[in-house]
Amino acid sequence: MVTPDKDMNNTSTAYPKLAVEFCGIPMKNPIVAASGTFGFGLEYAGYLDLSHDVGAISVKGLTPEPRHGNKGTRIAETASGVLNCIGLENPGAETFVRDTLPVLKTYDVPILANISSADVDGYGYMAETLSVDGIAGFEVNISCPNVKNGGMAFGVQAESAAEVCRMVKAHTDLPVIMKLSPNVTNIVEIAKAVEDAGADGISMINTLLGMAIDVRTRRPILGNLYGGLSGPAVKPVALRLVHQVAQAVSIPIMGMGGIMTGTDAVEFMLAGADIVSVGTATMVDPTAIARIAKEMNEYAEAEKLTHISDIVGGLRI
Amino acid sequence: MSGYVEAARVLRNEQIGADVWIMELYAPKQAKEAQVGQFCNVRVTDGTAPLLRRPISYAGFDSEKGTITLLYRVVGRGTELMTRLEKDDTLDCLGPLGSRFETSRHMLLVGGGVGIAPMLCIASKLKDGEEAQVLLGFRSKSESFWADLFKPYPVKVHITTDDGSLGTKGFPTALMPTLAADNDFSAVLTCGPTPMMKGVAAEAATLGIPCQVSLEERMGCGTGGCLGCGCDGAGGKRYKVCQDGPVFPAEEVFF
């Protein structure tokens, strides 16, 4: 959690108009480094000032036990997008808490623990194990498309999504943000279910299930056959889904899906996202988050906004 | 550990083989810190297609002139766009990235295909007390332009071809026992197709010479953030090729 000393620093943001609070977590700007694209954050300490440039960091998805992830090719580029099937490679929650968090928490930036489990009880274990000093909140992955029992089974049905949410809430006092899958028939129904189950916020969207084929070998390019699509290719879909969910729930939304520029981020906020998350852009440019924050501030200045939050849900129809 | 994002200026971009090009760029920050075996990750357009960067090993660098040299094979849209760059155009280069080769007293440098680039880099950067011999594996003599690149440097070049049209017929491993018998090599350093490197590493182990390999892997970010290039290491370890590699002791990744 944020120490008193760090609160002093929190008031000195580069862009006062971008400072926000999301689910009770103060952030210097509304940009969260997306889970799975930012390692555990430390990989980017040489590219960004983690204590000033980044709103929050959602760490690489953690599971109860260490995982090696999927075999074979795990990444493929498609038209304006990236397919991945990493398969939740991570050292496990306990190793993260013991080895990585002590270093990570020396930076003045909120850390969100992104958690997955193959069973509902495991989500309770994860919440308990990670409700420690240095963690500001949870992003609950019920939507990883790359792992059998990696959570997506929970995320595609309203009742199981709600069950996971209740389990995490029962094992932590920290804010709980449920990450929704776009690979569902009715995302609004699931959003409402997790809201009713006590979720403090929603993050959306996880990747869209896709595939790529090599016609020469006639084989799938990804070792896992299917993978999750991210990047600019998914942005229109993500915007539409954020807009639909924002109409239906009153808890705050972290919007993501192909944000490459400040303009993209503003679009998500107009559609109803309270804050945004940037992932694939970091893979292209490790300094992307700082640039996008600068561009969002330029928009706020140009539009004479008192605060960037003034545009949230401000879509004119 | 971290690289620099530089708007590198193209000094030269020429075709040297059927589908192989050489590009020299002014990129002073990475030229100053680059080490043999490291790579840069180039962004070929500022649009979104292609979206990801392309990892390319340094074939050379000059810290005083502030230049880096890249050898690249045209394999797709991204590298095809690179061929269109002209003198004084800029190319977004992120580097230096990854691990380096550990150089030593008398090295045998074994390269195949575009994996010859980092071997050229080592040959161009020999320090006092270091010497190297080069062993290149080609499909046929049509690839001999690679050997010409080593002419400026004080290294003996040995060649094998799959079809016997130049040098010794066979794979580079065929020549290794003879070369090892005639020389007291301190290390074998290799980069090329994975089957070739596995063969070279196995032969080096048989000959009792320490071997380092440079892995080629699809990368998402090149900066350790996405785990797209994760690989198994000895003893159940996990590595990121972009950050822990691309250069590894052979026994750490081939087992």
Write up this protein.
The complex is a heterodimer of chains A (317) and B (255). With 317 residues, chain A is α/β, with parallel strands linked by helices. Chain A has a single domain, classed as Aldolase class I (TIM Barrel). Helix content of chain A is 33%, strand content 18%. Chain A is built from 11 helices and 16 strands. In chain A, the strands form 4 sheets. An 8-stranded parallel β-barrel of chain A has the order 3-4-7-8-9-10-15-16, surrounded by 6 helices. In chain A, strands 5-6-14-11 form a 4-stranded antiparallel sheet, with no helix packed on it. In chain A, strand 15, helix 9 (262-271) and strand 16 (275-278) form a beta-alpha-beta unit. Chain B is an alpha/beta fold and 255 residues long. Chain B has 7 helices and 15 strands. Chain B has helices spanning 28-33, 77-83, 116-124, 145-148, 176-182, 194-207, 250-253, and strands at 4-15, 20-26, 39-43, 54-62, 67-73, 90-97, 106-112, 131-138, 156-161, 168-169, 187-191, 211-214, 230-232, 238-240, 247-249. Chain A binds chain B through residues 36-39, 43-47, 60, 68-69, 73-77, 79-82, 84, 86, 89, 231-232, 260, 280, 282-287, and chain B through 1-2, 5, 43, 48-53, 94, 218-221, 223-230, 232, 238, 243.
- What does the overall shape of chain A look like? globular
Unreliable runs of chain A: 1-12
The CATH topology assignment of the largest domain in chain B is Rossmann fold
Overall pLDDT metric of chain A: 93
Write the element-wise H/E pattern of chain A from the N-terminal end onward: HEEEHEEEHEHEHHEHEEEEEHEHEHH
Major β-sheet strand ordering of chain B: 10-9-8-7-11-12-15
Helix content of chain A: 25-40%
Main sheet: strands, sense, barrel of chain B: 7 strands, mixed
Number of strands of chain B: 15
Report Rg of chain B. Answer: 17 Å
Structural category of chain A:
alpha/beta
Pfam families (chain B): DHODB_Fe-S_bind (PF10418), FAD_binding_6 (PF00970), NAD_binding_1 (PF00175)
Function (chain B): Responsible for channeling the electrons from the oxidation of dihydroorotate from the FMN redox center in the PyrD type B subunit to the ultimate electron acceptor NAD(+).
Subunit structure (chain B): Heterotetramer of 2 PyrK and 2 PyrD type B subunits.
Family (chain B): Belongs to the PyrK family.
